[in-house]
Specification:
Elements: E1 2-8, H1 17-28, E2 33-39, H2 50-56, H3 64-81, E3 85-89, H4 99-108, E4 115-118, E5 121-124, E6 130-136, H5 148-159, E7 164-170, H6 177-195
Parallel strand pairs: 1-2, 1-3, 3-6, 6-7
Antiparallel strand pairs: 4-5
Length: 196
Amino acid sequence: MASVLVLKSSILGEFSSSTKLIDGAIEQSGNDHFVIERDLAAHPVPMLDGEIMAGLRGAENPTQRQQDALALSEQLINEIQACDTLLIAAPMYNFTVPTQLKNWFDLIARAGVTFAYTEQGPKGLLTGKKAIVVTTRGGLHKDTSRDHITGYLTTLLNFVGITDIEFVYSEALAMGEAPAAESFQQASNELSALMS
C-alpha cells in the first residue's frame, strides 16, 4: 500500500478550495493509500530565526526552544522519508505560498540530512519520491510571470531530491461562479487521476 504525506497550508479552514480538492481525492482513493496528514495552518511549525537555525545546525548547549525545533524537524523529515508521495496544498497568497508552508520547508531543508553539498553542487537526499502540488488561485496566473509558486516549489523539491513533480491548478476561483466551478472540477478530475 502506497503511503501519502498530505501537507495542508490554507488558513481558510472549511472554506479552503485546496483542502476540499485534497480531501476529495483522498476520499475517492478509498483505502488504496496510507495517509499521514499535517495541517500546517491548524498546527503551525515555528518560523525559522537565528536561534532555531543555530539549533538545527547543532548548537552547543542548546536551549529548550532549540531542542524542541530540532525534534520537530526530525519528526517532519521522518514523515517524508516514510512516504512514497507528498500531496502538497499550495494556495496562492499574494503571489507566493502561504507562510505556513514555507516554514515547513525551512525546517526540513537541512544540510547533511535532506541534502548534501558536493563538489558538483548540492545533492538532494530524499530521492525516489513523488510530489503532487495542488495550487489554487483567485485569478489566472499559470504560465505567467506572476506565478512564483511553480518555480519556487520545483526548486525546493528538487533541492532535497524530489524531481518527480506534478502540479494541479485550480484558477479563476474569484472570477465568478461558472469559471470557478469549471476550474475546480477540472482540478478535481486531474488530481483523482494522479492519485489512482
